[in-house]
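Sample entry (170 residues):
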Amino acid sequence: GINFLLSVAVLLCVTNIYNFMDGIDGLAASQAIFVLFSVSFICLFFSESTVSPFVFLLIGPLVGFLFLNLPKAKIYMGDSGSIFLGFFFGMMLLHEIDVSIWCWLILLGVFLVDGTSTAMVRFFQGQNLAKKHQSHFYQHLSKSYGVWKALMLIQCCNVFWLLPMASLCF
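Predicted structure, serialized as tokens:
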């Protein structure tokens, strides 16, 4: 019933938001690596559960990909990669694999907040949500400070703000 519909809506939202956020070199891969390492860290130090093998199966390829995707990127993730990662994180979140739903939501916070708030602002301004735009916060960071500094600011937010908050879930 309602739980199924809510789960489908959450899965679609997380998948689409992850796809929306794959807009500067290194962002989607570095965010995925942060989330996966953070879940591993939290399980290791704060939880009795072990980390699922899915986490480890993705970290290696993502790190290898990231080296080729950092600015100036030699390869790009594209929709197929970002949609897969969004779907993967949506499934992990919904099934509360390894950590609670709140922990997943916090660790994915940069993408969820930026993607959701940008879509809401554009919707209320009457803009076409399907059209390409440059109004995400990470895009403003990138324009103002460059891609490298934008990536570092986002990762500092992740490591020094979101990871401690997610750790407090335990």
